[in-house]
Fold this sequence. Notes:
With about 400 residues, this protein is of the alpha/beta class. Helix content is about 40%, strand content about 15%.
Amino acid sequence: xxxxxxVYLDYSATTPVKDEVLREMLxxxxxxxxxxxxxxxxxxxxxxxxxxxxxxLAALIGxxxxxxxxxxxxxxADNWAVIETATAKRARGAKHVITSKIEHxxxxxxxxYLEKEGFDVTYIGVxxxxxxDPREVEEAIRPDTAIVSIMYANNEIGTIExxxxxxxxxxxxxxxxxxxxxxxxxxxxIDVKELGVDLLSVSGHKIYGPKGIGALYIRRGVALPSHMHxxxxxxxxxxxxxxxTGIVGFGKAAELAGENLVSHIENISGLRNYFLDRVKERIxxxxxxxSLESRLPGNLNIxxxxxxxxxxxxxxxxxxxxxxxxxxCSSASLTPSHVLEAIGVPVEEIHGSxxxxxxxxxxxxxxxxxxxxxxxxxxxxxxxSSVSKESGW
Length: 393
Ligand code: PLP
């Protein structure tokens, strides 16, 4: 038996901070710790660092630095984009919002809030691969539609949506378009100008940066009211003393993500395919969820029939392997994943679904170790399962 390893396969939940990122952050805790709004030298050092980070993030997504607004998280960026756009447009008669059934809760719960405020929300469905048909978005747009928000890539099944086409449709109808690119950043080539999006959300901790820092791209010319009121930070649009170390770390992580994008995609998708091929060879009665063609490089979402995903997660954890049974924020609850439901996975199979997400520190050895642990755990659970295949479950 191979020695026990610790294998982290939940890179979509969060990523470790890279050494280069941490090294850039450290002086801003203790030496250049000033408030960027202060006029003396240590304040100006901090201000310059924020400006540099803004340039780096802007470069990663093809934006202008002045179009980047730092927030506390991807969640905050999503809330800001959707709630403030809808609320501002209500004054001009808009009362309709379009999104999809497979969004992250940051977006879905913002839409539920808007429903309570009197908005109609259309939740666009997806096909069995999790893909949105842009024609459905087109048909759903009404004269009173305030905003369309469709995620770039799904956090559970990894499906990448046809964002450029949907943005084009929204533009042709004069409707603001937002995309949640939290999972796409660093995993897909993103150019906001080529995409034609108005608003785009990102987060630092998914790209080997620190937690608690996100950003919203606001295309120049899009009038988005601020949602935090106070000081004049972020060009007066998002008040609150800047998360200096977080911003510096996010900036460095963005620079690395841009430099490494091509090799990252190649390595990660190579490892993912290696793992997938071997799971298919070794474990019967599985189903792969999400599109295989239009998919994030590190994502694999697999249903293991006749078992409970939570039990599998715990057995794998005992073997030192970290995976997830849904998005991290909902995995503490046993309600079936709304994403797997939307792609038509039967409820009993949803409960047997596990997400493996591979990242920059994953090795082939980690995956071989995981395969052994997985094979053994699945066999064990199937053996003791009271609801076996034979009983017709
Ligand atoms: N949107 C998506 C698609 C996500 O996967 C996540 C995090 O899992 C978020 C938004 C929220 O980002 P944050 O953790 O920065 O709040």
